[in-house]
TrEMBL record, chains A, B, C, D:
Family per similarity comment: Belongs to the argininosuccinate synthase family.
Record protein name field: Argininosuccinate synthase
Keyword NADP found: no
GO molecular function: argininosuccinate synthase activity; ATP binding
Pathway given in the UniProt record: Amino-acid biosynthesis; L-arginine biosynthesis; L-arginine from L-ornithine and carbamoyl phosphate: step 2/3; Nitrogen metabolism; urea cycle; (N(omega)-L-arginino)succinate from L-aspartate and L-citrulline: step 1/1
Enzyme class: ligase
Organism of derivation: Microcaecilia unicolor
GO CC annotation, single: cytosol
Catalytic reaction annotation: L-citrulline + L-aspartate + ATP = 2-(N(omega)-L-arginino)succinate + AMP + diphosphate + H(+)
Residues annotated as domain Arginosuccinate synthase C-terminal: 180-403
Gene name per UniProt: ASS1
PROSITE patterns linked to this entry: ARGININOSUCCIN_SYN_1, ARGININOSUCCIN_SYN_2
InterPro entries hit by this protein: Arginosuc_syn_C, Arginosuc_syn_N, Arginosuc_synth, Arginosuc_synth_CS, Arginosuc_synth_type_1_subfam, AS_cat/multimer_dom_body, Rossmann-like_a/b/a_fold
Catalytic activity, EC: 6.3.4.5
Length: 412, 412, 412, 412
């Protein structure tokens, strides 16, 4: 074993990769603190703690950050209608800064000079992790084994890891690995790699974990009433059984349950990584999909057209910042504060029907909306003078007439 | 009857409103040419011709512009992924300039000084009609009865129209009118007004015409392979039965059929009219919805990330221009040419599953894509040096570290 | 005289036009309250008051709103680096909402149902005035004589006004009118109309009022140090004589004096009016021009690159909103609050040299800037690892290489 | 000497740095081809050739690419009104891809596997060089000595280079180096580093090379008429002496001469490098500054308002792409083609007065402009109905009134 190099806080998942990394780091001469974020993934944290200690971790920190994840990261994304490249609801991207923030806090508290993670060298997650770390703790040093030749040349495939594991007493998985990799949290699961790397291949049936296959989901909808205040859901009521959910985490879990039951939130896309390559990802985001639709609706109902347009352009930037790993950046702070500012009056109730993979908005109401039923009515004139529209249209046509004049002259 | 005032080309629908307008215009002293655009709506054009002539139209023009509508208007919207306020696929907005263009052409050919339409004074359609007319024929005069006090004060409701119709031998509808108004074309049907004006009211079952209720649609999907070239669909194959459709109109009609059968394309939204009021609209856009998803996918697969981003910002403007009635404007011409330019390499095949109101992308392939399976692979290093990412991340963190430095100094 | 129609608050300038309007409004049966805003124009307000009363105004309100204009309108524009179509610093646009706000406040206080102004029917100012009035007092009725056929057909030219004036005892100007029209306030003077309508005509020498002809201005510069806090100037020191100015109005007047002395702030442009026509305007904005350059500089020095970019896009919208008359709109409120938010750390001192129509930035300093002299130094390595740049560049080249690969394949 | 490693094409400037690099590369075992781009800098190319050969270059290529630089790089920037962060006209940024393109062409032709340059590891130029190389020749390998520890640790300062030069027979400069570094081409000179790194320091008198000090420049202007076609200058006429210049290069050189004589084009800014740090740069861009103002003017005169706005947003992206080194990228190709498309009708003549560091636009004319003198006239009604503006304003006020209604309700 090499000499003592210092202490590293490792983002530990309990799986084969980070277990090998834990042992490898010790082998390199580091003291290792294992850090696990409970961000809603399906995991036996007690077992994982034992495993980490057995592998030689000096300490193990397991933190339940599900509530913080919902309120501090998912809610701002809901307010923004955040979506990357028109389709991806950013489930993984939102989790990373939440996880990494705690990791550097532990590093600070424990006086560790290093942090480490098991993200690959081609992906977005390495960037999201590390930019968060550098932004919050500029002096931190990062060990990314999958980018280090001495590591990746030694572990060229899963069999190398298995062999290493056996040699070092790391428990190896007994069930065969899926021919793809997945990442789970409260908001979503992503599937990529392996057989999914061929973008033509269909997702195998049985891949999806969080949502039911729509052909097998119920053929009667659940109808939910979702209440928003300041752009954030504060209550969800199932109109079928009258059940109601209020607190952020509980409400989000309930939406996951209903959406999952109806197969809502599956997408299969090719996206552009920050690093510049196209990748194919399959995602399921059950609750997030319902909230995306419901928030779009209440926002459209209560927000001025022009404010909405400007807010939309900010949300485009926000989505890209989050995807690229810049949650903790001056620009993302700025944009978040602007978006939050836009949500003051985004308040009211939206009713949605959830069925067979779809979310249908049925109606909406708000205590203070900009919708004026009398003004818009086809049957009532209201406070509106139709002849004003003639002037409006003619003034708008001035430019077009001038352009026509010019075009005619040019053609002559 | 007043004295001869000249000739007016009236956009005639065959319905009660424009029949009354036809007679009323004659009453005011105009010669009336009735013009009907076959834009894919469900209508007996032969009957309508007879009716118009019976009511005193000097001439009747009925033009089949379905192919032109698909190729000249819907295809550019597909290329753009055009969507207004994140949800509306612009079915009505795209039809208006197509219709109005022919109307002014008839006016020019027939030497008519006037055009007229039956659009209301609060809506978007009046603007879309008239801006097209002014842009293409600046000297045209427009008669918009629903904005003229002498007309709208006389016809304060449907009963006034019915009474007028009876008095002037205009055939009156025998079936009771739906308590909402609707507008149909090849691409979509919109429903608004009446009981839908209360944004809280759910759409009554039985409202939808083009799409089947998802609870009653088949529980087995149709799987389609849609082939694009230059961003435009050139072939649709149903993988279940092997049937294939090529020509623009035929292919579009087939997609309408499949999407309609599976209940695809329903939305219920509150939107912002150009005129500044919020309105509630319910739309069904069957084929358009499939194409929206399929084109998004093939574009993401074949277009560079940064080009995509810029093209997306142009498409936002395009959607707004189209919604507001500015199809024939210098800015829309400019944006269309830029978007078309972006589609040169958008070529390939997308497979989608259509089921219960949903369109699922299953996979895609392209002769020339920017997707590089080896480069992105988790298992192969390919032409990629992982350690480069370390430099990339550290350089990207420079700004964040400086910001942290500044924030720390300020807090001191 | 017609019967009593109610009370109108007239934006009165003291000149021939609004004097005629005052009398004409009385003739139409209105009680007229004359309202004059002291917004920094060169005017004898005492004389104007006498004149208005002599012409029959029921009351005269003269309000000094120079300080409010500077702090409430010019400062937000400085923070935004507001500029319309790359050149116009919005001097008139900013003054209108300030003036109109007080006008409707008087109308409310005095129970007047009407407001009136002398703006033409082709310009921007009518819109800026009226949108402000409608936004702040939706029930207000507006009398715009220059858009009323009974008025503009009666007064077809200046000679008609002169004749009317003579007939009704309105004092007529004794000096011949300039063959252009001008509008002045604290921030700028605009010149347009008359001989300037031919865009090829050069501005006649002698046109400019606020600034010295650069060929006649001093050939030695004044060097100023301008200190900003939260993006707003808080002190100006002349380094030549050591004189210093602090309060907003005083400081702004001093910058006007120095800039005027050196011929700073003249532009001659063709711009696009909101109403859709192109117009030619000549402007001089002395203090505003210095502040534009100085603020740009201190902002670039203290604001993060990406925040700056986003703020810049908001400022583009702000400039357009202000130009078009939407100061009091939900979108402008929103954008102003975002921009203000961006200015928290925009603090420091900029030195500028003012000479012969030019403003040269000489240097800048800030208590907390994002500029890191050591980091950027060519001679010191600082906390920077040059080899990181290799990774940064190679990762950035990935997309470019893929594109090259694709292009080569296509050409084959 | 180490063993033979292959051939490298070195961007050779003739100065101390790249001379040392040339020798050092040979020392490392490379064959070196020296490549000099004549891009308009002040240089004795014959002497430089001799020097390179004397130092051991296997071949020397000197290429005059001044015309290509003007037509292929500066003209697109003029069309775009390209400007980075509101102030920098991109003189260096535009030259880099032009230079690097030829460098990789030589590498291809000569079968060299490597290219090399003398750019520092903290700057933008390394990126602009290398992204061009990778984009046009993905397999190329780049040697950037200033990012290689074995080089930069050996040459820690100028004295190390001097010593190395003496030892290896490299001629050393006899005049003392300016305490800053500079980079020159046809379009501009940049000054940075050394004493300029303190952003508070004023530029020393005597720094500027291309432009005369405005206090010493003539006090009588030159008046130029600049004619544009498709957004590009095709003729410059001096109205004082009637002299006229047509061809791209000749015309550009003449504008440099006139602008330089009058001290036009100096700026002192802090900018944001792509690499994430703020740097201070002083630039002089004489001809470019005149063309920027003239093109802005003719464009505003001939281009529709909304097209201009969209084109402006594209130009912002273009400027950033160019600054960051992405000239040869799919996105920059796309944006250039869109911008070029927008310039079809940008045609006409602008008159400018050049005096004491300033460019004043005096007037403009165009064969086909969108400016309609009659329409905009204050004295003629033209084809304009003033009362239309009432409707236009009232419709525009609808949203504002609704917002006021909402705000009032909330406050209750």
């Amino acid at each position: 074993m090499s000499q003592q190099k210092g202490t590293v806080v490792l983002a530990y998942s309990g799986g084969l990769d980070t277990s090998c990394i834990l042992v490898w780091l010790k082998e390199q001469g580091y003291d290792v603190i294992a850090y696990m974020a409970n961000i809603g993934q399906d995991e036996d944290f007690g077992e994982a703690r034992k495993k980490a200690l057995a592998l030689g971790a000096k300490k193990v920190f397991i933190e339940d950050m599900r509530k913080e994840f919902v309120e501090g990261f998912i809610w701002p994304a809901v307010q923004a209608n955040a979506i990357y490249e028109d389709r991806y609801l950013l489930g993984t991207s939102l989790a990373r800064p939440c996880i990494a923030r705690h990791q550097v806090e532990i590093a600070k508290k424990e006086g560790a000079e290093y942090v480490s993670h098991g993200a690959t060298g081609k992906g977005n997650d390495q960037i999201r992790f590390e930019l968060t770390c550098y932004a919050l703790h500029p002096k931190i040093k990062i060990i990314a084994p999958w980018r280090m030749p001495e590591f990746y040349n030694r572990f060229r495939g899963r069999s190398d890891l298995m062999e290493y594991a056996k040699k070092h007493g790391i428990p190896v998985p007994t069930t065969p690995k899926n021919p793809w990799s997945m990442d789970e949290n409260l908001m979503h699961i992503s599937y990529e790699g392996g057989i999914l790397e061929n973008p033509k291949n269909h997702a195998p049936s049985g891949l999806y974990v969080k949502t039911k296959d729509p052909t097998e989901s119920p053929n009667t909808p659940d109808v939910l009433e979702i209440e928003f205040k300041k752009g954030v859901p504060i209550q969800v009521t199932n109109l079928k059984d009258g059940s109601s959910h209020h607190s952020s985490l509980e409400l989000f879990l309930y939406l996951n349950e209903i959406a999952g039951k109806h197969g809502v939130g599956r997408i299969d896309i090719v996206e552009n990584r920050y690093i510049g390559m196209k990748s194919r990802g399959i995602y399921e985001t059950p609750a997030g999909t319902i909230l995306y639709h419901a928030h779009l609706d209440i926002e459209a109902f209560t927000m001025d057209r022009e404010v909405r347009k400007i807010k939309h352009s900010l949300a485009l930037r926000f989505s890209e910042q989050v995807y690229n790993g810049f949650w903790y950046s001056p620009e993302c702070e700025f944009v978040r504060s602007c978006i939050e500012n836009s949500q003051k009056m985004v308040q009211g109730k939206v009713r949605v029907s959830v069925l067979k993979g779809q979310v249908y908005v049925l109606g909406r109401e708000a205590p203070h909306s900009l919708y004026n039923e009398e003004l818009v009515s086809m049957d009532v004139q209201g406070d509106y003078e139709p002849s004003d529209a003639s002037g409006f249209i003619r003034i708008n046509s001035l430019r077009l007439k001038e352009y026509h004049r010019l075009q005619s002259k040019v053609k002559e």
